[in-house]
Amino acid sequence: MDVITGGTGQVAGGTRPQTGPALETHGLTRSYGARVAVDSVELLVERGVVLGLLGPNGAGKTTLIRMLSTVLRCDAGSFRVAGVAHTDPVRIRRAVGVLPESAGYPRGQTCEEWLTLHARLFGVRRRDARALAARLLGEVGLEDRRRSLIAGLSRGMRQRLGIARALVNDPEVVFLDEPTLGLDPFGQRQVLDLVTRIAREHGVTVVLSTHVLDEVEQICDRVVILNRGRVVADGTMAEVVRRAAAPREGRLEVPADHRARALDTLAAHHVPAEPGANGHLGMVRLELPGDVAPEDSSAAALRCLLDAGVPVLGFSVEGGRLSDAFLRVTRGDGDE
Amino acid sequence: MSEATRTRPATTAAAESPWLVMAEQELRDLWLSGRGLAVMLAHTTLLSITTYLIATNQELNFLEQREAVALTVQVTVAVGGLLVVLVAADAVSGERERGTLETLLLTPVPRRSLLIGKGVAAMSLWFGAFLLALPYLWWIGRDVGTFGSAAAGTFLAGTLLALFLTGVGLLVTTFSQSNGLSLALSFFLLLGLYAPHQLPAEASRGWAGETLLKLDPFTSALLYLERLVINAHTLTQDLPLLVVPALAAAGILTLALALAGRLSLLPRSG
Fold it and tell me: How far does Cα A317 stand from its chain's mean position?
């Protein structure tokens, strides 16, 4: 099991005790009938981390979040959130904030009314709850929508309101389940900026479940990839990419009359290569191993060509991104 | 961000009971959104039509004045009960379908408190229906002096039935797969409970018939009200008839609250 340690969002002071990991699961399992949604998940996430939780549709991300936030019971295993054992769900709920996937909103309530209600349900006094609601609305950029009915908000505004609701109890761990789902690029940008700011300013551990790998690359310190309910990758972005051993593609440009020699030379050095497409007679595509640093594998390929006297006009490497690793470890699985 | 926003918000365990917070919000949602007022308007319209028919329709006009009061009492109890059971039946399954249940379950509030808060809101419809019926009871029974006993008896028996139906609705909604199922099941349960009261007189004769009627909380309560209003019995004279509704209300509410811990996002999984 990998220990995921803090990155951008180190916990910022505050009055809460800061001991132990933010999340810890052991053999966490949950089934729906015969289908195992989450299968023996082992996780250890230190405080202050922004963790990207990835996986194809039906991988078990939402079920895992629901178990960790005590909305669903686990069939087997145990977990601790913010140092609180799963046997004490009320204390866990006090320590977490959650933006559920496809959360519904009471359309007939105002933004302030809804946040105030939730703050009061967390034990905040009525007057303090109203002040807290106003402050949180300001934080998510909805201060001018205090008295607006939720029914009148755009989807992006509702997501930001949902994030504000997830903060009413000043949580230690925030779970955001697909926060940018259905948003336009501008809305996505706003929500991601907000998540980054929350992680930095509130000093909370953020678990961001998403399908959008770019989002994870932009804001997450660490990543966990689930597939068919199991953790198939866990670590920093670089670690996950390296462990996934997703092959990279090298694009080599040589003079057209040297291409055949280049292909022969690469074959002799066991570097898989083939003529490039698009009718460009000087292009060669070669596959670089994913488990070797790209600079090392590229240098080795270029060295053998140069040693063989093949002039190299250009060389570039593609791949080795999180999306390559994701596809590699999930093998395109998913329920859609 | 200031330090104030980083420290925990001021919380207090004793200041507000979660069920009261929940009830307050549910009452606001029900009454200020216009839903409660709309059904009260419908109830008033129904009472007005009934009263008008009693006053003008030749057949109904032959009713003894006490019987007319009893009819109004029955309408009030039936409509109040229907409203209560439908709102209670929507309480959890409706939130589940609208996607708003999860955020409530994410709060540290005990499931029981959520149900109590929603039950209070459902009960408020009965009290609304009862209050609206008072002027009609007074006007129809003004010549026979039944207003006081009819009002008190209706309040007593109707409240017991409303509590019972709140329990039925909450129990059904907690475990229903869909809101439609919850509403339909609760509605048909209400009809089933009301049915024995509509049986022909022959069916209620004999030991078995009487037992059936007395074991049905609706029939017992309505029998109590009939004797109170039509036979001019005192409030306490037929109190044993309210034992069944009282026990049924206590039993079903206890059951609903005892099983509240099994209230979950997915009705059959927890």
Answer: 25
Give the residue extent of every domain in chain A: 23-105+153-243, 247-319
What is A247-319's CATH number?
3.30.70.100
Looking at this protein, which amino acid is placed at residue A336? E
Angular region, A221: left φ>0, alpha ψ -120 to 50, beta rest: alpha
Domain ranges of chain B: 18-262
Residue contact B10–A170, C-beta within 8 A: no
Question: Can you tell me the distance from the alpha carbon of B161 to that of B85, in angstroms, rounded to the nearest whole number?
Answer: 10
ipTM score for this prediction: 0.85
Greatest Cα pair distance in chain A = 80
SS (H, E, C) A246-301: CCEEEEEECCHHHHHHHHHHHHHCCCCEEECCCCCCCEEEEEECCCCCHHHHHHHH
| A155 in contact with B, Cβ within 8 Å | no
Q: Which CATH class is domain A23-105+153-243?
A: alpha beta
B1 and A202 within 8 Å at the Cβ level: the answer is yes
Percent of chain A with pLDDT over 90: 50
State the Cα–Cα distance between residues B66 and B151, nearest whole angstrom: 13
Q: Give the confidence band of B64 by pLDDT, cuts at 50, 70, 90.
A: confident
A201 contacts on B by Cβ (under 8 Å)? 1, 5-6
Q: Which of residues 156-215 of A touch B (CB under 8 A)?
A: 165, 168-170, 201-203
Helix or strand holding residue B243 (H, E): helix B243-258
Q: What is the C-alpha separation between A61 and A66, in angstroms, rounded?
A: 9
Q: What is the pTM of this model?
A: 0.83
Q: Who's near B136: CB < 8 A, 6+ residues apart?
A: B47, B48, B50, B51, B72
